Amino acid sequence: MKVTALAAHTPEAVRAALAARGWEAQPAWFAAIGIQPFVVLIEDITEPEREALVHWGAKSGTDVLTGNGWALIAGAASRIAPLARYDRAPAELARLASTLGRLLAARAEPPRTWGIRGGEVSLEKPLIIGIINVTPDSFSDGGHLASADAAIEHGARLISDGARLLDVGGESTRPGADPVPVKEEIARVVPVIAGLQHRELGPISVDTRKAEVARAALDAGAAVINDVSGLSFDAELTAVARDAQAGVILMHMRGTPATMDDLATYGHVAREVAAELAAGAAKAEQGGIAPERIVLDPGFGFAKTATQNFRLLDELATIVALGYPVAVGLSRKRFLGAATGRPVEDRDRATAVACALAWERGARLFRVHDVALTREALALASATTNPP
């Protein structure tokens, strides 16, 4: 008899063991996902629902922790999955089925593509977004690109280094930043976007909160709108994205760049950020934006302390479980400096490590300044989860 302990932190270990013993690829993957640990927090439940969960847990072999109005279920995904089926769950728990079903589906079949204006991009491998800031006051590279031509050449280098999307921004969103007038923001970003498009360097994203700026950027050739306010700053931006069939990145932020540091108050940061992002995505879909065009960004550094950013990075799977592709903007952020002691201009190595950790936790898009270094870190990280 031989006994081998398999790596429990990844479904790949079980999948590989089954595949080596003749299982076909898809059944092996679903079986591996099914026996992975799964933990669900359920809130706002009634007393009859709570009692039903306790009884169900005792019969199913899952752990159930409960309190007034809430329950936490832990066990293999395959054991919890019957609660997502109306024909197998107790009648008292019928209200849970649809939401739990979406979580399980996102876990088993994560998004593999992202729809943007004019096509779609694959998420099977890391998608690195190269940053082009045409601003005088961005936190790490403000004023470095003094002209549109310089910004376009920088974009060419980012693509050569491995970026698959270029993100052009004309308004700093660092803590305490002042807003930029619409006409000035347009004057900063449109010549760069037009020049990148002319040289077929792209696709291109515009980093803006404003409908008028987004409209001008789309006219110049942008395919994505990256909004740090999650479509909450300008009521008209949703319609602009919808009508253009653009891809959208919805980021989590509380308040504005001027006020966000005072709003970093959370009981459980990952759960609360996930809930607020889910509400924003639902609002976007209600406004006519197709779900396959939506990417979520948890907003590292925006209305979050260093400790909260680390917790959010570690618990990123909570955001991934919402079922949308997840982008992370970790590049040179203050919390990386808090861990390493490095100044803002010397945080690219920490950024690359953080991106690799984010990939392992389910992120698929990575917005960075140093594309080459991040590409190497992600090539290594993705090689462990996508074996050749």
What do these coordinates show?
This protein is of the alpha/beta class. It folds into two domains: 36-108; 113-385, Alpha-Beta Barrel (TIM Barrel). It contains 15 helices and 13 strands. The protein has helices spanning 11-19, 25-34, 47-60, 77-80, 97-108, 148-161, 182-198, 211-220, 237-244, 269-286, 306-314, 317-320, 334-340, 348-360, 371-385, and strands at 37-43, 63-67, 70-76, 113-116, 119-122, 127-133, 165-169, 204-207, 224-227, 247-251, 294-297, 327-328, 365-368. It has an eight-stranded parallel β-sheet. A three-stranded antiparallel β-sheet has the order 1-3-2. Strands 4-5 form a two-stranded antiparallel ribbon. It is globular, with a radius of gyration of 22 Å. The two termini are 31 Å apart. Residues 139-143 have low confidence and may be disordered.
SSE blueprint:
Elements: H1 11-19, H2 25-34, E1 37-43, H3 47-60, E2 63-67, E3 70-76, H4 77-80, H5 97-108, E4 113-116, E5 119-122, E6 127-133, H6 148-161, E7 165-169, H7 182-198, E8 204-207, H8 211-220, E9 224-227, H9 237-244, E10 247-251, H10 269-286, E11 294-297, H11 306-314, H12 317-320, E12 327-328, H13 334-340, H14 348-360, E13 365-368, H15 371-385
Parallel strand pairs: 6-7, 6-13, 7-8, 8-9, 9-10, 10-11, 12-13
Antiparallel strand pairs: 1-3, 2-3, 4-5
Helix pairs in contact: 1-2, 6-7, 7-8, 8-9, 11-13, 14-15
